[in-house]
């Protein structure tokens, strides 16, 4: 499988999954998730997937401060409904990384290892796009996501339209692909701007 080389340059997640350990899926429950895994989940790479990946990084860094993060130990609440804009795409990506699901998720074994109802949508009382809370009540983080921090190339709009209308040349299609992924690359590899893409509204 061929894909842009920068995917492998993106910092990976090293997580502990107690369900994975319990059922012998991975040694000691250690799970590694990279950007390419999220691309496979979504079927594409875009600013929404990239910013969701960054958001998950910000959350686990804040909650676990250098320790190995535990999957399925975070509740995720969205202000918007799952079918509003890209909200559902963000939810799918965050849920995959953090081991959380909505009402359709795994309900656990013997009262343990639950993933169900850890993601909810349509919480209009929130003052942010997303609220993350540790299940033990020890911390929370509220964020907004702004992908406009990294602007698309000026040529993108024209190239996109030509591609959609099937009138783009081979060279134009290749340029469109390159420019699209360049924007994603700039988001993921420039950690100095992560605090602008992921804006912390409140924390505790």
Search tags:
single chain; 204 residues; 7 helices; globular; 16% strand; 5-stranded mixed β-sheet
Chain-wise SSE layout:
Layout: E1 13-16, H1 18-22, E2 30-33, H2 35-42, H3 47-64, E3 74-78, H4 87-98, E4 119-120, E5 130-134, E6 140-145, H5 156-164, H6 170-189, H7 194-197, E7 198-203
Parallel strand pairs: 3-4
Antiparallel strand pairs: 1-2, 3-5, 5-6, 6-7
Helix pairs in contact: 3-4, 3-6, 5-6
What is the name of the CATH class?
Alpha Beta
- Largest sheet: spatial strand order: 4-3-5-6-7
DSSP, total strands: 7
Radius of gyration: 18 Å
Contiguous helical run count = 7
- Portion in strands: 15-25%
Detail the poorly predicted runs.
none
Short description:
The protein is α+β, with helices and mostly antiparallel strands and 204 residues long.
Describe this structure in words.
It contains seven helices and seven strands, in the order E-H-E-H-H-E-H-E-E-E-H-H-H-E. 37% of the residues lie in helices and 16% in strands. The model has no long low-confidence stretch (mean pLDDT 98). Strand 5 and strand 6 form a beta hairpin. Strands 4-3-5-6-7 form a five-stranded mixed sheet. It has a single domain, classed as 60s Ribosomal Protein L30, Chain: A, CATH 3.30.1330. Helix 5 (156-164) crosses helix 6. It has helices at residues 18-22, 35-42, 47-64, 87-98, 156-164, 170-189, 194-197; strands at residues 13-16, 30-33, 74-78, 119-120, 130-134, 140-145, 198-203. It is of the alpha+beta class.
């Amino acid at each position: 499988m061929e894909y842009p080389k920068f995917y492998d340059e993106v910092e990976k997640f090293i997580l502990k999954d107690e369900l994975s350990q319990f059922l012998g899926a991975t040694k000691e429950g250690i799970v590694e998730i990279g950007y390419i895994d999220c691309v496979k989940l979504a079927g594409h790479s875009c600013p929404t997937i990239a910013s969701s990946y960054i958001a998950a990084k910000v959350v686990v860094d804040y909650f676990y401060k250098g320790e190995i993060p535990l999957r399925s130990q975070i509740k995720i609440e969205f202000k918007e409904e799952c079918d509003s804009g890209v909200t559902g795409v963000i939810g799918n990506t965050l849920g995959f990384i953090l081991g959380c699901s909505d009402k359709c998720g795994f309900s656990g074994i013997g009262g343990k290892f639950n993933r169900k109802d850890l993601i909810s949508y349509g919480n209009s009382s929130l003052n942010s796009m997303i609220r993350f809370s540790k299940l033990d009540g020890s911390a929370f983080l509220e964020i907004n996501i702004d992908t406009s921090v990294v602007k698309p190339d000026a040529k993108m709009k024209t190239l996109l339209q030509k591609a959609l209308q099937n009138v783009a040349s081979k060279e134009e299609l290749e340029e469109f692909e390159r420019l699209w992924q360049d924007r994603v690359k700039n988001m993921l590899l420039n950690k100095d701007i992560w605090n602008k893409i992921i804006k912390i509204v409140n924390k505790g």
